[in-house]
Predict the 3D structure of the following.
Amino acid sequence: MRIFFGRIALVAMCLGLAASSAQAADAFAPSLRTYGTASLAAGALPVPDAPAHFSANLALEDVAAAPSTQSYWPLLYSTLIPGLGELTMGYEKRGIALMAAEVVAWTGYYKNHNDGMDERAAYEAYADQHWTEAKWISDFPNLCNNPQTVQDIEECGQASSGSGAWPGYIPYITKEQDKQHYYENLGKYDWYISGWDDWDSTADPYKHDTDHRTTYRSMRQASNNSLDDADAFVWVSVAARAFSIAETAIIIHNKRDDAAGGGEGSPISLHARPRGKTGGEVALEVTF
């Protein structure tokens, strides 16, 4: 009996599945037709609206270009012309200021150097006019016994050297041997005072200076001052160039650090300001 009823249940279940399949086939008959919308294709079934975020434009958005890495070329520019490196990186005020300092430096150098050389030529001509070797020998002070030659004065001077007797021995250097020291000695040392044309060998006591010698000293000092000023302007140029190179290197470092994601701002900076006519100060600032 159990086997009989089990077989009957199995047959009933199979008949039920067959009926369900037939109904599904009637509801969704196969077709090759195409539909214009999803709703037509689904028939009576509801089709949910697309989520809001799917209705957005899927076109690629413009992405900001990553900052380019700063090159080292501005260092070369600053080495050639102070301020040019800063100018090429967009720091116009700094660049123009340093370039202006360079122009001022070389303008000052050439002006003062030319003035100094002109003044040197003037005092050399003045000495040639008012000082002679012959008078120096013939009117030499009585420290030496009637010298006749330069060699006589040299021997006398060597014998009296260290005694403290006036006028004080200084070895004679001719113009041909050393032009600069020749003209320096004529006005600097009393040993050569008798060669000036306004020195009186008969005065008692001897005068330790003359008007022409005093004028000569002033002329020579003016020349030296102009040449010293010219050298000072060269140092202005050197300082401007060194500052520009250092500042350019710091700017490049900060820009490359920013491009690599090292943070915003400039952790290292350089500051400078003048102090009077020939002085100045430079400060390096590092932000932690």
